[in-house]
Amino acid sequence: MSSTSLSPQPGVEALRRAAPGRVHVPGEAGYDAARTPWNLAAAQHPAVVAEPTSVEEVRALVDAARTAGLRIVPQTTGHAAAALGGRADGALLLQLRHLRGVEVDPAARTARVLGGTTWQEVVAAAAPHGLTAAHGSAGDVGVVGYALSGGLSFYGRRHGLAVEHVRAVELVLPTGELVRATADVEPDLFWACRGAAATLGVVTAVEIDLLPYPDVHAGMLLWDAVHAAAVLPAWLSWTEDLPESVTTSLRVMSFPPLPELPPFLSGRSVVVVDGAVLEDDDVAGALLAPLRTLDPEMDTFTRMPAPGLLEVHMDPPTPTPATSVHALLGPLDADGVAAVLAAATTPSPLLFTELRHLGGALARSNPEGGALTSLPGSYLLHCVGAVVSPEVGAAARAAGEGVLAAMRPWHVDGAALTFVDDVVEGTGSPAQAAFGADALRRLRIVSSVYDPTDAVVAARTLD
Ligand SMILES: Cc1cc2nc3c(=O)[nH]c(=O)nc-3n(C[C@H](O)[C@H](O)[C@H](O)COP(=O)(O)OP(=O)(O)OC[C@H]3O[C@@H](n4cnc5c(N)ncnc54)[C@H](O)[C@@H]3O)c2cc1C
C-alpha cells in the first residue's frame, strides 16, 4: 500500500490535538523529514508521524492512537529502522528525538535521561562531573534503543552490558498510563524492561548509573590490509590473555575513493584495532606493546577526556544507508583463525567485517538483573555493507551471510539484540537466542499483561 493512499487517516484530528503542530500525514510538509530514519536504507511509510516534546504529549498521542486503532512505533534515531522490516507502514510512528534531556546527580553518580536522548548528550552532561556512561561506539545512537536491548560498549569487559546500569524505567503503556518501574516498584515490569522495554510501551525516561572516568586511555591502531594475515591472528591471540580492563574491536575495512573520507581511509583497505584500556598510561602502554610491535601505520592510543571515546571507532557522522548481520563466536582454534582471516579479507561488497572482543563482565549473568544481563561468546562477528543501491545492498547482505556461514562451526548460541538488523535465514528467532527459552516465556507473559493487543511495534520483537 502506498503511503499517500492512507490519507486521510481516521483519528488524525485527535492526534493533532494531542501534539499540536507536531503531527504529519503523507503529503504534508514535515512528513518526509519526520519519517526518515538514520538508516536511509530502511524506507518507512507510516500512516501518521508524531514528534512529541513532552510526556503529556506522548500520553495523549498513545490515547488517540488506541482510539483510532493505530499501532504505535516508537523510534528515537532510526539506527535500527531496518529491523522493523516495513512494520512502521500504516502505523503511528512516534519520533521521540525531541523528547530529550539529561539530569546528572553527581553525588549518586546517576543520570535521569529522557526517552529520545542520544549518548553524546549523556556523555557531555556527565563529563563536567568527571563521569561518563556505558555508551556504544557512536554518539548519535539513542540511549533507550541501546541500553534497554543490551548495549555493548568499550567499557563492557569491565562493566558489563549497558542494561546492567539501568536503575529505573518510566514508560507510557498502551493504555496511556505512565508507570515507573524499579527493583522495588513494579519489579516484574522492571525485569522485563531490562531487555524488552521496547515491546511494552513508549519509554519516556530511564535512570542509569554513570561510570567514574573523567578520562580514558583509548584510540586506534591502523595498518594497510596487506598486513591482515599478521595483524588479525596476532590480535586474536592477544585477546586470549587480557585483563577485563581492555575492550577492543578489530575491523578489516574497504573504502571506495570518496572526498568526504580522510586520506588514510579513502580508496583503501585497512585493518583497524580500536577501543579502550581502563588502566594508567604505563600499564596501558605495556598491554598494547605486543600490537605495536606489528608496526602500525597510525597509532592514536593516548589518554583523552572520556567523551573522546565516542570518536575512536569512526562511525559515520550522518545518516547512512546500511545493512548488517552478526553472530556470536566462541574461542577460535587454528582453523577458526584461518577461516575468519579468509572471510574478512576476501574481496566483497562489504564495508567491513568486525570482531568485537567479548568476555569478562559481559559474559557474567546476573540473577538479580533483568531479562538480559550478559552476552555469551568470545567475539561478536559483525558484517556491515553500505546500501548505495538495492543491488549493492543485496550483494553486501549476501556477502555478510556468507561470512556468518563460513564461521558457523564456531558460533555459540546467543544474539546481541542491539546488533539485530534483520532476521538471517536459517538462524531462528533472535529473541529466543538472546533471552533463552525461560526468560522469553516469562517476557511473553509480562507482555500479555502490559500490551495484550500487541499495540507497540518494536524493532526487536519477542517472536
Ligand atoms: C553506526 C552504529 C553504531 C552502533 N554501535 C553500537 C555499539 O557500539 N554497541 C551496541 O550495542 N550497539 C551499537 N549499534 C546498534 C544500536 O545500539 C541499536 O541499533 C539501537 O537499538 C539503536 O537505538 P536507537 O534508539 O538509536 O535506534 P532506533 O531505531 O530509534 O530505536 C531502535 C528500537 O529501540 C526502540 N526504542 C527506541 N527508543 C524508544 C523509546 N523511547 N521507547 C520505546 N522504544 C524505543 C524501538 O523498538 C526502536 O525500533 C550501532 C548501530 C549503528 C548504526
TrEMBL record:
Phosphoprotein found in the keyword field: no
Keywords tagged on the record: FAD, Flavoprotein, Oxidoreductase
Listed GO MF terms: FAD binding; oxidoreductase activity
Gene3D superfamilies, per database record: 3.30.465.10, 3.40.462.20, Uridine Diphospho-n-acetylenolpyruvylglucosamine Reductase, domain 2
Domain named FAD-binding PCMH-type: residues: 42-213
Keyword presence, Oxidoreductase: yes
Cofactor(s) needed: FAD
Similarity remark: Belongs to the oxygen-dependent FAD-linked oxidoreductase family.
Name of this chain's protein: FAD-binding oxidoreductase
